[in-house]
Amino acid sequence: MTGVQTCALPISENSYTVVIGADQSVLNGFTITGGNSSNRGGGMYNYGVNPTIENCAFINNNASLFGGAMANHIANPIIKNSSFMSNSASESGAIDNENCLYVQIDNCQFKDNIAGTGGAMSNYSSIMALSRIQFDGNTALNNGGSFFISGGETQIDDSVFGNNTAFDGGGLYLTGGTVSIEKSYFLNNAATNHGGALFIESGSISIENGSIVMNTAVAYGGGVYSNAGSSLMLDDLVISDNQAVYGGGAYFLNSTVNANNCHFERNFATTFTDPHGGGGIYSSGSTFTAISSRFTNNKANQDGGALLINGGNASFSSCGLTDNNAGWAGGSIYTVSGAQLSLLNCVLSNNSASYGGAINNYANSTTTARNCLIVLNEAIGGNGGAIHNHDAYLILKGCTVADNASTVLGDGIRYYNGY
To answer: For residue 270, which phi and psi values (nearest 5 degrees)?
Structure first.
């Protein structure tokens, strides 16, 4: 069917669905509005078919269960140049995808949709490719303000997640499956619990050539939150101006994280609880590796202006950690609970805190630095202009520690029951 037409029903009517998809059909130029399904797919339902939907608008449709605007079940739809606005459902406010072989969505807008889970869209064990998508102002009462993913494979390119909200994962929530995101932006999303932009419950995600900016979480991970067993690959990514109580930029819990050529800047952890903070990153029991990355102008009210490493392992190679600040300890890095920290060919400069202007190494942690430049850091009102080593192990090889300052003890390094 082709034409500029409107298929509308009064929202109070209990239509099972407005349009039933047919195999190899084309729906072009229609507005679907007022659908109100008691099950799934208020606007359109596709089961085992391969339709093409283009130049359409799905507005103010509702489903009691899944997919307020559209439900795809074992289907392979192609959706292009269309908009989905103000749709609602218990799950998947606009589009629900279940066990689909291949769903393609290109150049579409999802705005002001709402659901309990997956404010705009959900993917349950489907293969999906999304490009040039705008998610704006969608809401999930539980998880995934714009997108909830459970299993399957999802590829997202050249897309924007902005102004979406949820309890966990203001922009996107992943539990199982693999996700690849390229040239995409997460801006001004919010979580009332964890993961302002992204919440990674489990599964594997790679994010490349994009940014995660100005997102907030009330508790953990202003930009990103990852849970036990998750795997994250971050390449050429900017994470900046995010805020949370713990882990302003990101919070990694028992996860494996690789960051290559990334920039963490102006992130803020607001807690005053010791030992907590992590303005840029809070890594708890995780394996975190950073190569050729920068950590600048991050702040924690308490500990770890750029990073707080609570147990686990963290390694940095050819990284710059500059102009970070902690209100109490570890202007750049704070280690605790037996954390293992390795620094190779790194620069730590112009960082500040009360204890350990650059590094506060604490509580049976081990910090090993090789060929690093540690200069112009300051301990204000405390000890260890460059490093404060407290009940911990410190190994320096081929490092330059110079021009640091402390207003109390140890302009360079202050040992307090350290090794």
So the answer is: -95, -15
- Rounded distance between C-alpha atoms, residue 315 and residue 115, angstroms: 40
What six digits make up the tokens of 161? Answer: 């997640």
Q: Is the pLDDT of residue 419 over 90?
A: no
Q: What does the alpha-carbon distance between residue 122 and residue 358 come to, in Å, rounded to a whole number?
A: 43
C-alpha 36: how far from chain center? 33
Alpha carbon 326 to chain centroid distance?
23
Q: For residues 96 and 122, is the Cβ–Cβ distance under 8 A?
A: yes
Q: What is the mean pLDDT of the chain?
A: 95
Q: Where are the beta strands (DSSP E) in 137-218?
A: 139-140, 147-150, 153-157, 160-162, 165-166, 172-182, 185-187, 190-191, 198-213, 216-217
Distance, CA of 314 to CA of 382 (rounded, Å): 26
Residues in the chain: 419
Encode pLDDT of 375-393 as tens digits: 999 999 999 999 999 999 9
3-state class (DSSP) for residue 313:
strand
Closest by CA position to 398, among listed 362, 379, 376, 374: 374
Helix (H) or strand (E) holding 129: strand 127-136
242 SS3 class: coil
Structure tokens at 119: 């404010």
Burial of residue 153 (CB within 10 Å: 0-12, 13-18, 19+) is: middle
Tell me which residue of 246, 310, 254 sits closest to 279, measured CA to CA.
246
- Contacts (Cβ under 8 Å, ≥6 apart) of 300: 248, 268, 269, 271, 277, 278, 279, 308, 325, 326, 327
Residues 174, 203: Cα–Cα separation, whole Å: 7
Joined tokens for residue 127? 């293969």
Q: What percent of the chain has pLDDT over 90?
A: 92
pLDDT of res. 9: 42
For position 18, what pLDDT does the model report?
81
370 contacts 345 by C-beta, under 8 angstroms: yes
C-alpha–C-alpha distance, residues 288 and 361, integer Å: 17
Residue 201's pLDDT is: 98
Evaluate if residue 258 carries a pLDDT over 50: yes
